[in-house]
What does this fold into?
Amino acid sequence: QVQVVESGGGLVQAGGSLRLSCAASGRILSINLMGWYRQAPGKQRELVASIDRVGTTNYADSVKGRFTISRDNAKNTIYLQMNSLKPEDTAVYYCNAGVVWVGQHYYWGQGTQVTVSS
It folds into this structure.
């Protein structure tokens, strides 16, 4: 079994910052792609940022220059530093991990709420 746990969400004023963390644990040989997704009320879940095992990153256009994704392979953990937050960043943020054990499977965390007030 694999567990993916996010933390670090909360309420912040527009222009503020938050740092999210996501840790995977359990039956893991390695983790390939990891990413942050978000889902706002009434909207589809969308990719925010992703990072592979060697550190190659990808960002949604809406967060480029404001958000930074990073990774600690030894801890099976990724982070999302969110700066200059806007009300439209309000959503539940989910972590996804591509875990290799017997084959590769993708696991989701339970999500963490980020609310940006104007």
